[in-house]
């Protein structure tokens, strides 16, 4: 998969794709339906995705609470697994946000990216002030030489599948419900960073990852599946993770700390993908370190049992 970040500098071989357009936060079932429609619209054309970094909501509301389900890298990895060949990850800036709806259709979709066909959801809005809608895009497509397919919203058990509903499930400690809407486990992906190494001292060395910029799942302990994506220890492991502020040790920045079962090795600086399977319990402040270790023993035993049954 090739990643193209500037619509004004697109190589000839990256033009002519059929693409789904949207933010695709989480790459959930509804997103996949739109992507599959793009795949089928022009079968001989490369399959593309047009998305935006930073997310427009981040651009316009820089002080808003974190809401993203995925960072850019995790989204790219998920889209590549779905067979996307061209990821048009456009830089969302003042210039792009100032384009009118027709300017976006003409200058970005038609002239810039050279797309032959695009697929959008029925609730798609675009252009300055979100003035454009899916029906308008179809009109502009006919005028500027690209096809448009409008995808209906996908439902499951009569509830709308959306990034908002997935965030709610995660906030309430329901990762399996989130996974049903996503059609994959919700994952936190990033680099392993240096921590306080308290886990190592307790016999539970953990891989620490920042969750900065991401919607925080319910704080607590989870049974997790961990993929080490880079380095000599690449592979898949079972584990338990704590997400939160670690109340046993004062006031801390929220992060994700994963303990990989039956693993030995140095993975500092490597990229991990941590899939949340089950919520085990909330964060607790224990009377003693011994009580904490006893609870960690129980958490890991329970996580092992859950993961063995997958």
What percent of residues are in strands? 25-35%
Mean pLDDT across every amino acid position: 92
Q: What is the end-to-end distance?
A: 30 Å
Report the count of strand segments: 16
Question: pLDDT below 50 for ≥5 consecutive residues: which ranges?
Answer: none
Say what the CATH topology of the largest domain is. Answer: Rossmann fold
SSE class: alpha/beta
Number of helices, counting only DSSP H or I runs of 4 residues or more: 10
Overall morphology: elongated
CATH class of the largest domain: Alpha Beta
Q: How would you describe this structure to a colleague?
A:
The chain is α/β, with parallel strands linked by helices and 310 residues long. It folds into two domains: 2-156, Rossmann fold (3-Layer(aba) Sandwich), CATH 3.40.50; 186-308, Beta Barrel (Elongation Factor Tu (Ef-tu), domain 3). The protein has ten helices and 16 strands. It has helices at 29-41, 56-60, 72-81, 94-97, 101-112, 134-144, 163-171, 175-182, 198-201, 289-308, and strands at 2-4, 18-21, 47-53, 86-91, 117-121, 125-126, 132-133, 147-151, 155-156, 159-160, 186-191, 207-210, 220-228, 235-244, 255-260, 271-281. The strands form four sheets. A six-stranded parallel β-sheet has the order 1-4-3-2-5-8, sandwiched between helices. Strands 11-16-13-14-15-12 form a six-stranded antiparallel β-sheet. A hairpin with a 6-residue loop joins β13 and β14. α5 (101-112) packs across α6. The protein is elongated and about 70 Å long. The two termini are 30 Å apart. The mean pLDDT is 92. InterPro entries: FAD_synthase, Riboflavin_kinase, Riboflavin_kinase_bac, Riboflavin_kinase_bac/euk, Riboflavin_kinase_dom_sf, Rossmann-like_a/b/a_fold. It holds the Pfam family FAD_syn. Catalyzes the phosphorylation of riboflavin to FMN followed by the adenylation of FMN to FAD. Keywords: ATP-binding, FAD, Flavoprotein, FMN, Kinase, Multifunctional enzyme, Nucleotide-binding, Nucleotidyltransferase, Transferase. GO terms for molecular function: ATP binding; FMN adenylyltransferase activity; riboflavin kinase activity.
């Amino acid at each position: 998969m090739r990643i193209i970040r500037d619509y004004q500098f697109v190589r000839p071989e990256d033009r002519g794709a059929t693409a789904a357009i949207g933010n695709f936060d989480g790459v959930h079932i509804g997103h996949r339906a739109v992507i599959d429609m793009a795949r089928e619209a022009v079968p001989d054309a490369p399959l593309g995705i047009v998305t935006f970094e930073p997310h427009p909501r981040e651009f316009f509301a820089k002080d808003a609470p974190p809401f993203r389900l995925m960072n850019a890298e995790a989204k790219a990895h998920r889209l590549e697994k779905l067979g996307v060949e061209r990821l048009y990850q456009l830089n969302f800036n003042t210039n792009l946000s100032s384009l009118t709806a027709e300017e976006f259709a003409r200058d970005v979709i038609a002239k810039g990216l050279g797309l032959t066909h695009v697929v959008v959801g029925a609730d798609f809005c675009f252009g300055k002030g979100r003035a454009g809608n899916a029906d308008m895009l179809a009109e502009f497509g006919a005028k500027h030489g690209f096809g448009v397919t409008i995808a209906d919203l996908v439902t499951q058990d009569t509830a709308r599948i959306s990034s908002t509903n997935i965030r709610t499930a995660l906030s309430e400690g329901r990762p399996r419900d989130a996974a049903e809407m996503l059609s994959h486990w919700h994952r936190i992906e990033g680099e392993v960073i240096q921590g306080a190494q308290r886990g190592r001292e307790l016999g539970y060395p953990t891989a620490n990852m920042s969750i900065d910029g991401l919607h925080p799942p319910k704080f607590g302990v989870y049974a997790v599946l961990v993929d080490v994506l880079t380095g000599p220890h690449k592979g898949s492991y079972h584990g338990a993770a704590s997400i939160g502020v670690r109340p046993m040790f004062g006031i801390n920045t929220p992060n994700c700390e994963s303990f990989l079962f039956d693993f030995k090795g140095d993975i500092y600086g490597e990229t991990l993908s941590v899939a949340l399977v089950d919520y085990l319990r909330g964060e607790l402040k224990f009377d003693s370190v011994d009580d904490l270790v006893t609870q960690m023993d129980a958490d890991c035993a329970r996580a092992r049992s859950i993961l063995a049954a997958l």
